[in-house]
Amino acid sequence: MAGGGFVLVFDFDKTIIDVDSDNWVVDSLGLTDLFDRLLPTMPWNALMDTMMCELHARGRTLADVAAALRAAPIDARVPAAVRAAHALGCDLRVLSDANAFFIDTILDHHGLRGCFSEVNTNPSRVDAGGARLRIAPYHPADAPHGCGVGTCPPNMCKGLVLDRILREAEAAGKRVVYLGDGRGDYCPALRLRKGDFVMPRRGFPVWDLICEDPARVQAEVHPWSDGAELEETLLRIVRRAAIVEEPATAPAPALLPLDCKLESLPVAAQDGMPVMPLGVKN
Ligand SMILES: [Mg+2]
């Protein structure tokens, strides 16, 4: 299948869904003021655990949290892209600084959980007789990740997680496409190899960081702005590889225009980005 040569690694907040799930739950359940007041005093991940305890203290249930999560906005083209990539044989993973309960609830709601072979995120558990959600850091405080890039939060270095995924991809002869929007997505973007792809969300923090020094990124850079562009760009990368790697079996005439469109992608000289030798593998 066309996508059999790819591992696709998705950030979750503002990538799969169109909002930050932590902010969405906090705002939906009336904790915005408390959250804003406490944010300067503790790490984000610990603050979210505190917010969950506060919800329980106020009599809100796990069902209330789940209902808020199911209402989180999602661009319909993103689930379409996920399903199409899965159907093409890609290996899809989530790598997120949200938490397991939030992500599983939303993916289940949209019927997407089965498309992902793993979800790497902050662990969650339920206590107080099934009534209270607790959120823990991915890297425990007594085992800091020690990453020196400077853009990773203390509770999670996505780059370290991606290193393991890159080793798995290399052993399987697969290339990696990484999609994300935030500062925490910069470290993994730097660890991608030549032949991999990074899809930063245009105008978001990871895009700004990449633009500051494009030479630090070895992977091909393909920005996107919304679900439609994410879908189009991601599927073009996967299908283009099929043309290059399987010329005898790919329906070349029908897909060739996709290559032409890729040539004109605004990876953009005016944004200070290198113009990639598109259509040519390293
Ligand atoms: Mg994000």
UniProtKB/TrEMBL annotation:
Q: Which cofactor does it need?
A: Mg(2+)
This protein's source sits in the domain of life called Eukaryota
Residues given in the record as substrate binding sites: D22, D97
Query: Gene3D superfamilies from the entry?
Result: HAD superfamily/HAD-like
Q: Name one GO molecular function term.
A: metal ion binding
Could you list the residue ranges forming a coiled coil in this record?
A: none
| Matches recorded under InterPro entries | HAD-like_sf (IPR036412), HAD_hydro_PyrdxlP_Pase-like (IPR006384), HAD_sf (IPR023214), Pase_PHOSPHO-typ (IPR016965)
UniProt keyword annotations, A-Z: Hydrolase, Magnesium, Metal-binding
Q: Which residues form the active site?
A: D11 (nucleophile), D13 (proton donor)
Where does this protein hold Mg(2+)? D11, D13, D181
- Return the protein name: Phosphatase
Source species of the chain: Paspalum notatum var. saurae
